[in-house]
Automatic annotation (TrEMBL):
Segments forming domain ATP-grasp: 118-304
NCBIfam families in the record: rimK_fam
One function term, GO molecular function aspect: ATP binding
Family: Belongs to the RimK family.
Gene name per UniProt: RIMKLB
EC number of this enzyme: 6.3.2.41
Superkingdom of origin organism: Eukaryota
Descriptive protein name: N-acetylaspartylglutamate synthase
Reaction(s) catalysed (UniProt annotation): N-acetyl-L-aspartate + L-glutamate + ATP = N-acetyl-L-aspartyl-L-glutamate + ADP + phosphate + H(+)
Region (Disordered): 284-306
Length: 306
């Protein structure tokens, strides 16, 4: 069976889950496309078969031969578990076929590993906390002496951690040594200078198409360093200085992101430094309803006028 009508916008994900925010993104995109009379299709990666026949790239979905392709594909894959040999292969295939992906494969990879993000940002004048990391999976203990120049307490993060998990504030070398025996070493860790004045709080900046569409102050409620809402933190809409907005936009541009969440740490002098970048920004429903509505609606900006 062949498709005869091009869906102008696809939503591509690993699975359509009933839980928030996956279902909310899908609902909002459908509503936006209906409002603007755009063709829409939700596609699950497991349904896709990639083909190269007679030297040409092709695609089948659930046995259906696709002959007309979307102009824009909104990608939602969990970055901590992105696999180059599966997820990125599908994204590369679509991109090679002329589809415009939000976000592009390389942009997603730039956010998969926290140290990769900093590698991309280094050399561009972006304020970053001093950060060390290492190659291999078993070198954590060897880094204890190397990272001492960052001073204690220091931040220790799994480079593929998410939602504030696998993040520690190491008190001293003994604490680091204890951590080396307790943590899982499936991915390297990074060691980072502690920004004390931003303990338990940061600003999540949502950038879509090079514009700031929402800002949220996130605060810990239990004294811990992480302010993630998934760990019990609370968030509220907030204003942001022009300096903060321009920094978030600069980071988004360097990483090649169409849609992202940039987390900024706050300094006592009112300036900011970059904490992390997220390729799948979406706040929890009770925390940021207005921005949640904006993100999916803004995701059609790459489409030409109807």
């Amino acid at each position: 069976m062949c498709s005869s009508v091009a869906a102008k916008l696809w939503f591509l994900t690993r699975r359509i889950r009933e839980d928030y925010p996956q279902k909310e993104i899908l609902r909002a995109l459908k509503a936006k496309c209906c409002e603007e009379e755009l063709d829409f299709r939700a596609v699950v990666m497991d349904e896709v078969v990639l083909t190269i026949e007679q030297g040409n790239l092709g695609l089948r979905i659930n046995g259906e031969l696709i002959t007309a392709y979307p102009q824009v594909v909104v990608v939602r894959v969990p970055t901590p578990w992105v696999q180059s040999d599966s997820d990125i292969t599908v994204l590369r295939h679509l991109e090679k076929m002329g589809c415009r992906l939000m976000n592009r494969p390389q942009a997603i990879l730039n956010c998969v590993n926290k140290f990769w993000t900093f590698q991309e940002l280094a050399g561009h004048g972006v304020p970053l906390p001093d950060t060390f990391s290492y190659g291999g999976h078993e070198n954590f203990a060897k880094m204890i002496d190397e990272a001492e120049v960052l001073e204690f307490p220091m931040v220790v993060k799994n480079t593929r951690g998410h939602r504030g998990k696998a993040v520690f504030l190491a008190r001293d070398k003994h604490h680091l040594a204890d951590l080396s025996h307790l943590i899982r070493h499936e991915a390297p860790y990074l060691f980072q200078k502690y920004v004390k004045e931003s303990h338990g709080r940061d600003v999540r900046v949502i950038v879509v198409g090079g514009r700031v569409v929402g800002t949220m102050l996130r605060c810990s409620t239990d004294g811990r360093m992480q302010s993630n809402c998934s760990l019990g933190g609370v968030g509220m809409m907030c204003s942001l200085s022009e300096q903060g907005k321009q920094l978030a936009i600069q980071v988004s541009n360097i990483l090649g992101m169409d849609v992202c969440g940039i987390d900024l740490l706050m300094k006592d002098d009112g300036s900011f430094c970059v904490c992390e970048a997220n390729a799948n920004p979406f706040q929890e429903p009770k925390k940021q309803k207005q921005t949640n509505k904006k993100i999916p609606r803004e995701k059609t900006f790459l489409l030409p006028p109807s």
